[in-house]
UniProtKB/TrEMBL annotation:
Keywords: Carbohydrate metabolism, Lyase. Pathway: Carbohydrate acid metabolism; 2-dehydro-3-deoxy-D-gluconate degradation; D-glyceraldehyde 3-phosphate and pyruvate from 2-dehydro-3-deoxy-D-gluconate: step 2/2. Homotrimer. CDD domains: KDPG_aldolase (cd00452). PROSITE patterns: ALDOLASE_KDPG_KHG_1 (PS00159). This is 2-dehydro-3-deoxy-phosphogluconate aldolase. It comes from Luteibacter sahnii. The gene is eda.
Length: 214
């Protein structure tokens, strides 16, 4: 797939819902129920972060069993992570920032990457490599809606998915911006609800998030 085709794939993934749930999962056996709840609630693009040993098993299970889910792998830091994500059946990858080595690996990998930027210089360096879609991370500590909004005029080619410190309450401030495609956040899959297998609770959080306007 060409880099431009990968960008189009990212574009259609980010268009699926106003929020991409960012998941930290400890027990892979909870993955399918959780993902079905998210899909049923209207947020089908799901980022499972590589922050736990269960993450890749969770991705494999979701990719194999959950109809309608578009599962991605987050916290991708290295070429090895990217390869593991692809082999697990992920449809996209997300990184908190970018490094030249990771970007070189992404050029040679079929998996579309959504790399992170937190400054105008980082966003420009990614744009030079063809990334019109970028994660803005960590969104709130880095400057929140004011910072990403300030990039709309000088960097109109780039659409961002802000994540980091986003909630149902502050998501509208980002979604109102012309250069924000959607937001990401872990609030839809809280650790207590995941551990308890509270799929009804997760579906309710997803439903609320899916109704956010953009
Ligand atoms: C991410 O990787 O995008 C963040 O960890 C999600 O941030 P949050 O937990 O503040 O939503």
């Amino acid at each position: 797939m060409s880099n431009e085709a990968k960008q189009r794939r990212v574009e259609s993934t980010l268009a699926l819902a106003p929020v991409v749930p960012v998941v930290i999962i400890d027990d892979a056996s909870r993955a399918v129920g959780m993902a079905r709840a998210l899909v049923a609630g209207g947020v089908p693009a799901i980022e499972v972060t590589l922050r736990t040993p269960a993450a890749l098993d969770a991705v494999r299970a979701i990719a194999a069993e959950v109809e309608g889910a578009v599962v991605g792998v987050g916290t991708v830091l290295t070429a090895k992570d990217l390869d593991a994500a692809l082999k697990a059946g992920a449809q996209f990858a997300v990184s908190p920032g970018s490094s030249p080595r990771l970007l070189d690996a992404a050029d040679d990998c079929e998996l579309p990457l959504l790399p992170g930027a937190a400054t105008a210089s980082e966003a420009m360096a990614l744009l030079e490599r063809g990334y019109r879609f970028q994660k803005f991370f960590p969104a709130m500590p880095a400057g929140g809606p004011k910072l990403v909004g300030a990039w709309a005029s000088p960097l109109p080619q780039i659409r961002f998915c802000p994540t980091g410190g986003i909630s149902l309450a502050n998501a509208p401030d980002f979604l109102a911006l012309p250069n924000v495609a959607c937001v990401g956040g872990s609030w839809l899959t809280p650790a207590d609800k995941l551990a308890a297998g509270d799929v009804a609770g997760i579906e309710a959080l997803a439903r609320e998030a899916a109704q956010l306007k953009r």
